Amino acid sequence: MTIDQPEKSLIRRIRSEISDHILSGDWPPGYRIPFEHELTAQYGCSRMTVSRALGALAETGLIERRRKLGTFVARPRTHSLVLDVPDIAAEVIARGETYAYELLSHTIRTATQADLEHLDLDRPVRVLVMRCLHRAGGRPYGFEERVINLEAAPEAERADFSAEPPNSWLLAHVPWTQAEHRISAVNAARASAAILAIAIDTACLVVERRTWRGSDKITHVRLTYPGDAYDLVARFSPRPNPPTA
Prior knowledge:
The protein is an alpha+beta fold. The chain is 29% helix and 31% strand. The longest helix has 19 residues, at 5-23.
């Protein structure tokens, strides 16, 4: 079935306006989008037009359609089956410890070559670069080095990161559709050892993460944890046996 130009334009408009609600944070993850018949009335169009617009949004990963329940802003999923993107503050509190946070540096600049490599970008963009220290029970818990692509998340430029950790702010305000984790063991270098109040060459766990929203690269973060302060726990099941011929 062919789609005429006026309907194509309306589909693009519906997609754009719903995307704007989601990407601005007005509609957070889990928010129920108006039902199809409501959107049909709002835009004065056929239900098929609305369905096509929603179908295109579902393909990008921004929304999920649940049979008989409606359409919802998608909750983020990672490439890994066993890792999520945690809220560090909530993670510390869940351990039964008090959480504290300190913004060590905050710079807005044109991306350096290292920034572009971290974000996997091939052209200059404006970025927000931060260094932060997270504490648990009064002791250093994690050293965060983060780059945010301001083209993908322009609202981050106005956020008050002296009061709210970037991790918590991003989870609340910038929806994402994919994440990639890289985990390694390192010996603390002089700079990170001083910030974490540990001896140089102390064993540390490093978690590097990149997140995307569709094709947009949002952020890269490198989190360094003292080896005795952090662990990764995953529960999983064996994959089902592949079908036989």
